[in-house]
Amino acid sequence: MVVQIVTKENILPTAPTPHSLKKFKLSVLDQTQVKLYVPLMLFYLNNNTGNLNSVISDKSKLLKQSLSDTLTRFYPFAGKVRDDFYIDCNDEGVYYIETRVNCSLSDFLGQSPGDAMINSCGGIALCTCISHKLLDGATYSLFLKDWTSAARGSSSEIVNPSFIDPAFFPQIPSLFESTLFEVIAALLWKCVAKAACKSNKSSLGDPLNMGLSSELEHKTLVDQIKKCKAETSDDFIEAIKGDSGTPTLVKIAEMMTSGETTFSLWITSMFNMGLYELDFGWAGETCLVLLLQFKIGVCEAGTGSGIQAVVSVSEQEMAIFENDPELLAFASVNPVPL
Description:
This protein is an alpha+beta fold. It is 33% helix and 18% strand.
């Protein structure tokens, strides 16, 4: 497969950001956030039977113009994170790379995913990668939905986000179907931990130090997840608001990144984010969502039923994990994505 870089450029907002909004202060939640970028990859098949060069050119122009329009409303995304205190909303824009490859999207999806690209068949692999300091899962989904609405020219669906004062931290509703998430997360947690236990060199630390054994009941893990979620109560949210809540958040962040943490397993959920509804106006095309970066990422499957989970562990652990009978009783490993 040959990858050709077509263009590298910065996409600027359509309209300049008002001077009063040039300095966006980060909240304490953002300041204590783990420093990582959150990539998301979307695949769209081409069902347009028109001239292929015209189809590709039109899609490229549409993506860039609609992104420019969206950045006007999501102006911090077009700025620069200067430090742990603020974003300079200088309209620098977002880095945009367009590539083309000499294979069809269907063939490509049978291989390992790579950079964002336009395939020789006119299909598109669209990858976004944004700092976690700028957004959470809900904001990520909102940004993508607004971008697709702008691409379709659907003004009634375009949102005008409010970037509130960081001194005010509102209650955030649950982002996933809790019962479904708890069951799946517990199963993956157990299977990954078993693989780490059996591996001579675990990338996750030592699960045994936290009392985890392969005989631990699945229901026990589900109950543990329920307990942890229940502790994120209104009282807890109130406790981490404002200056008085900063020490608590700093302590949590230090605990998550500390080398003393014996077993670190990140699980992120994108349930109910509507990612398979992201439509740039290319009717009838299939979208495949891949969650990367996190140890485990889960979301709905594009087929309309089932769940897609992407698990990232060491090669040695993966060899054990993907052959776990308990996992295989409920899941298919590396299924055909389309």
